[in-house]
Amino acid sequence: MAAIDDVATPECLTLWRCIGCGAMGNAKECQGTCDFKRDFVVDAASHADLLEFFLSLSDHNEALHLLARDVVAETAAPERFERALAGLRARAKRLLAEALGEEPPQAVPPDERAEIWLCVSCDMVEAPRDCLGICIRRNGDFVRGKDHDALSAQIESARIESRSLAALARQIGWATPRPGQFERTRGALRTMALSLLATA
Ligand SMILES: [Zn+2]
Ligand SMILES: [Zn+2]
User: Which of 32, 47, 72, 130: CA 20 to 30 A from 4?
Assistant: First the structure.
């Protein structure tokens, strides 16, 4: 499973931004010698859209994982297997029905990110622009481009994982053993679930 804590709480930069010229900065004042490094930021609202998608996809994957683990752990006696399978089947179908079919929100493309200069010793931020008139500053929250990219990468791998978990859920959801073939069906589903859990 993806390390949710790593991406769920990125460092948030509160910066002012001029609505006219796009100049940015914060209220930090450097005490010593500033060492500015170029960086790129995206607005926190766009990042939050991605994060919301990632968190619900992670929840969904977790429920599918649990289903796979329960398939592996299923040991009902042959005469009770039909009922046990019916329960697993219903869960699989419910999870598939609530699957997030939609595409994830777009990550902010590189050319739409704001360039800033961030001091590595004091966190002072500067992004000077040529202002034509009076700067009108609005405060906003921003997230660094690398955190945004890391989250996009996590979403991509969660989607890949989700597809293989869904493939197993489909097998479970439509498994209908022929009479007397319960052990075979159980064995086949367990093998599939085990190999999936081993790779996930
Ligand atoms: Zn500094
Ligand atoms: Zn301005």
Answer: 72
Distance between Cα 23 and ligand 2 center (Å): 6
Lowest mean pLDDT segment, chosen from 81-85, 91-95, 107-111 = 81-85
CA of 198 to the centre of ligand 2 (A): 55
Ligand nearest to the CA of 123: 1
How large is the angle between the packed helices 44-73 and 78-97, nearest 10 degrees? 170
Domain limits, the chain:
4-199
Ligand found nearest the CA of 126? 1
What are the respective helix, strand and coil percentages of the chain, to the nearest 5?
50, 15, 30
With pLDDT > 90 as the criterion, what percentage of the chain qualifies?
64
Closest ligand to Cα 24: 2
The answer to whether residue 1 scores a pLDDT higher than 50 is: no
Confidence at residue 33, expressed as pLDDT on a 0 to 100 scale: 85
Ligand nearest to the Cα of 118, by number: 1
Amino acid identity of residue 84, one-letter, is A
| 68's tokens | 């796979």
Q: What's the confidence (pLDDT) of residue 6?
A: 63
Q: What is the pTM of this model?
A: 0.85
